[in-house]
């Protein structure tokens, strides 16, 4: 591991002052100064020498300001520094936004969930071996212009939706799939102290020909939290995660679904996020449109799944993934349709 300086920020202005040292970096994630939350990803990638920040700014002292979880009638407010386990266990989230609680519960391990923050979680980086292992020269994400070794290599765990000819890395997180399905927003403050809000769907970028620029954050931006609007679909919601090993593994396929159904089972609103095989957190409006106004049953769910994966692009080891993704989505939709929703 390379030497680095560790700074501690106990308030927002101190954090942002350090965050100003962007070193002319093109991407937030490659800036020489990185905010340190739980450190569960940052230290991992620093030990692999994939991330090489010169300065870490410990922002855990900002937890009082940016660590709260607040539930109100119009929605949820999740502080950036709330821990994954706090949000997973929060009684209102479990009851009214189960897709969020499910996604967090099925992510990582209890120890990691106790350490890891919500903002750090959404900013986690791909698990693509060619990205994480510097012995491989060909990784456009780590080393722009070097090619993508995964396209002809070991790619079973990588993406089929949103890929480009420059990168087929997958976005590995779970929580982000719930946020994208529910139409969340992310709150940001820049090093000058200016705040802005962005649809969560716009936080991550598709790889296109710049896979090394993963988000629309600029160097020095600090995520302060997330808002999730309430809606009649949030209570009938769930996250289904399919993985090689049921305990403690990243998704091969996942679906975040939230439904508002009429008394006869007609879909008034469907909100659908796809994970496990996507280049970025992925909302499938195609699947949502395929369900709207139809009775939720095997046929309509299958049509939605067909629409969700119509644009899938597979490589040598990912031919099985669109079918796995379709089956995952169908099961998630039908399970959500059967949920018993108590009146509050
Ligand atoms: C073995 C293992 C298994 C895992 N399994 C899963 C899984 O199944 N599902 C899943 O979703 N995740 C999984 N994870 C990922 C884990 O959830 C992330 O490592 C964790 O959520 C990162 O959060 P953190 O607070 O530790 O981030 P850190 O490591 O502290 O930070 C990560 C990045 O985010 C930046 N950052 C942090 N906070 C902010 C902020 N407020 N504003 C701007 N930038 C910020 C940091 O500068 C850094 O670049 C796994 C991780 C490991 C190690």
Description:
The protein has 344 residues and is α+β, with helices and mostly antiparallel strands. It has a domain at 237-337: CO dehydrogenase flavoprotein, C-terminal domain (Enolase-like, domain 1). 28% of the residues lie in helices and 19% in strands. The chain contains 13 helices and twelve strands. It has helices at 12-19, 42-47, 63-66, 84-89, 91-96, 98-105, 110-115, 118-122, 129-132, 175-181, 285-291, 298-308, 321-337, and strands at 5-8, 33-36, 55-58, 69-72, 75-79, 185-189, 195-199, 222-229, 237-242, 253-261, 267-275, 282-283. The strands form three sheets. The chain has a five-stranded antiparallel β-sheet. A four-stranded antiparallel β-sheet has the order 9-10-11-12, with helices on both faces. Strands 1-3-2 form a three-stranded parallel β-sheet, with helices on one face. Strand 11 (267-275) and strand 12 (282-283) form a beta hairpin. It is globular. The termini are far apart. Bound molecules: flavin-adenine dinucleotide (FAD). Flavin-adenine dinucleotide binds next to strand 2, helix 2, helix 7, helix 8 and strand 8.
């Amino acid at each position: 591991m390379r030497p680095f300086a560790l700074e501690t920020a106990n308030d927002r202005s101190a954090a942002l002052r350090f965050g100003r040292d962007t070193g002319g970096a093109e991407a937030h994630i490659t800036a020489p100064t990185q905010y340190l939350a739980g450190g569960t990803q940052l230290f991992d990638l620093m030990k692999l020498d994939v991330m090489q920040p010169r300065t870490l700014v410990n922002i855990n002292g900002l937890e009082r300001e940016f660590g709260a979880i607040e539930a109100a009638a119009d929605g949820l407010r999740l502080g950036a520094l709330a821990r994954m386990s706090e949000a997973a266990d929060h009684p209102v989230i479990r009851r009214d936004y189960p897709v969020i609680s499910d996604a967090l519960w099925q992510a990582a391990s209890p120890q990691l969930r106790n350490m890891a923050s919500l903002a750090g979680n959404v900013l986690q980086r791909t698990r693509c071996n060619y990205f994480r292992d510097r012995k491989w020269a060909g990784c456009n994400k780590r080393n722009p212009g070097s090619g993508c070794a995964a396209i002809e290599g070991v790619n079973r765990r990588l993406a089929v939706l949103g890929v480009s000819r420059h990168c087929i890395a997958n976005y590995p997180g779970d929580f982000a799939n719930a946020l994208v399905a529910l139409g969340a927003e992310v709150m940001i403050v820049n090093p000058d102290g200016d705040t802005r809000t962005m649809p969560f769907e716009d936080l991550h970028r598709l790889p296109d020909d710049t896979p090394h620029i993963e988000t629309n954050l600029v160097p020095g931006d600090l995520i302060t939290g997330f808002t999730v609007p309430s809606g009649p679909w949030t209570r009938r919601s769930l996250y289904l995660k399919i993985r090689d090993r049921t305990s403690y593994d990243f998704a091969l396929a996942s679906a975040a679904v939230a439904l508002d159904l009429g008394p006869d089972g007609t879909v008034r609103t469907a909100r659908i996020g796809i994970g496990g095989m996507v280049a970025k957190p992925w909302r499938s409006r195609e699947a949502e449109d395929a369900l709207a106004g139809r009775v939720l049953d095997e046929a309509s769910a299958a049509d939605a799944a067909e629409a969700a994966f119509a644009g899938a692009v597979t490589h040598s080891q990912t031919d099985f993934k669109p079918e796995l993704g379709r089956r995952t989505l169908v099961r998630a939709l039908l399970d959500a349709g059967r949920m018993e929703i108590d009146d509050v």
